[in-house]
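Consider the subject:
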Amino acid sequence: MQTTFSEKRVLVKGHEIACVDEGEGPAVLLIHGIPTRREMWRKVIPALAENHRVIAPDLLNYGRSARPETADVSINAQQRIMFGLLDALGIGRVDVVAHDIGGGVAQLMAVNRPERVGRLVLIDAVSFDSWPIPEFEPLQREGAEDQMSLDEFTSMMRGFLPGGVVDKAAMTEEVIDLYLEPWSSEDGKRAFFRNLRRLNSEYTLAIADELARLPHETLILWGSEDPFQKPEYADRLANTIPRAEKVLIEDTGHWLIEEKPDEVARHVSNFLGRR
């Protein structure tokens, strides 16, 4: 299975956004969360690209995209970046598949520009008041990065990532290195803390009532043992969005795309492929 893809760099609102652009057919946008990057989708892209044009970007201030020191990196700003990326790529309407805070971005896209979104897949997504998670709250304080050396920071993150899987074998050192690579410098560490400070439920709470009016067919795909975005929020989303269905993937945590990528790809492909 192909797990590396050529990179495209697109100027969006004055910032370079790095993305994968693979396959042909109806467009699907894959949005990662924190602390991940577009490579999170590496084992899912080949299956989706058989029948779709797959766009998988690094969010602004993540991965290999630009790291502006003063730009807004809230989920509200990120949804504007996503629409700008789609415009630059000549894509009008797109199915959106999103994980973690990417799911918050996707909800904002669907609420604010419903005509631009086809089907919606929310995978262990932030929603309502589900975030920030307690593990990140102490790190959101101003100047927190100055109290932590780079080695202390990377050690903390190496301890954090395996906590999001049931099958610890899925979170190998190689996978952890992949996710930590963008943050493993002093510049990267500071970028990460800038992202942390924009983690709050302001925007997901603001659109909570709007979710009940979404017209989109929606798949709520969740790890049954997610310790960060609790499965009760999957229930709440499924009960709020009118055309939503929920699928729990058993014995998986928050990083279910690492634990059971083939099962995730199958559910997403089947859902997007419906007439």
Summary: The chain is about 35% helix and 20% strand. Residues 5 and 20 are 7 Å apart (CA to CA). The mean pLDDT is 97. The longest strand covers residues 117-125.
